[in-house]
Amino acid sequence: MVGTSRAHPERRSRSGIFTVPVSIAVIGAGFWGQKVIREILSLSRKTGMVSLRSIVDSSPSALERCRKKVGPLDYRTDYQSLLSDPDLSAVHICTPNSTHFEIASSFIKAGKNVLVEKPLALSSKEAYLLVEQARARRVVLSTGHYHRFNNGLRALKSTLEPSILGEPNYLGLEWTGISPPQDQGNVITDLAPHTFDITNCLTGLWPDKISCVARGYRNKENEEVAFITCEYESGLSAEIEVSILDPRQRRNLRIVAEKGNANLDLLEQKVVLQHEHGVVKIPIIPSNILREEIEHFANCVGRNRLSQTFSNENDGLLGAHVVTCLEAARESLSEEQSVRVKFPSMHGESAVMN
Ligand SMILES: NC(=O)c1ccc[n+]([C@@H]2O[C@H](COP(=O)([O-])OP(=O)(O)OC[C@H]3O[C@@H](n4cnc5c(N)ncnc54)[C@H](O)[C@@H]3O)[C@@H](O)[C@H]2O)c1
After folding, report:
1. If you compute the radius of gyration of the chain from its CA atoms, what whole number of angstroms results?
2. Among 47, 68, 185, 288, which has the minimal tally of Cβ within 10 Å of its Cβ?
3. Rounded-to-integer distance, Cα 206 and Cα 179, Å
4. What's the 91 CA to ligand 1 centre distance in angstroms?
5. Are residues 15 and 127 in the same domain?
6. Residue 138 shares a structural domain with residue 208
7. Which residues in 20-41 are b (16+ Cβ under 10 Å) and which e?
């Protein structure tokens, strides 16, 4: 069913779990790509479910730095030769945002499964096109919204039960830290994707209206801090602060709900709940969220290879909806008013394949 299935004869272990490793290439070996490479190598050693086919970076010096850290592997400066590689099942794209669409589209058209770092693309038109292309080729398309695998977020979600916090009234998200002034990119595109995704993961909702104010201080051309308000049809609202000017590194989500409130530190994976029975710290075993994301992607690829039904928790459609929210925030910023968010209706909204 998947274009690469010829290269991977279907084999199952006694437990029924398929044992042919999903062979993955990492495109982009910079800051994030190196973290991804480490996790793939660790998963490969510990489970055998994935193998690292190749590392690609267009910069020879970045490749050399990576080679020194990771050791002898297949290194390339150009991904083109991998498009027709029968031994390659999938790619994890960790290149700059402006390259996501072109690289992802090339691999999808070549029948490869693709995990693209956030944001899926720079425009919603390109993002939904990737979703359509992946559906047409019947390959897995995932977006790097890896907080869906954060045990803190999972625990927080469970507090929205009617017997605990009940319906949320409003949410507050803080995504801040300090980074050097940037020539390219802006704080909305770079930091807000996770906040839109997390809000959807928690509530199952997408905003109806978005308003945004933002500003650059050190570099007037690129926004360095943004305050985004999301309004939902249900009456819920979410206040999002994203900043690369704040020395406090915060990845926080606060819920004010019918029966109390809760605070999640997404970095520490700690949830503190305040309700009628007092203040409670929820016991959580933190997850390795990047590892779980790659594992989930490999499972989706493996199941797709066997034509089994699977549910892709961070699929391309979620990524495309997040890009629609980013666009709405930018539109609000330029029009200086709140804007209605328009999500195109796509056939098969669910993230379940087959
Ligand atoms: N999930 C997260 O929390 C998270 C965190 C950081 C970065 N990211 C994402 O990861 C991506 C990369 O970010 P980064 O901080 O690692 O950037 P980076 O600049 O450190 O690394 C990007 C690398 O891609 C290489 N590259 C550029 N164009 C290429 C091409 N056409 N083919 C092959 N290689 C190419 C560059 O030489 C560079 O080494 C971005 O999309 C970013 O949004 C995600």
Report:
1. 21
2. 68
3. 29
4. 14
5. yes
6. no
7. bbbbbbbbbbeebbbebbebbb
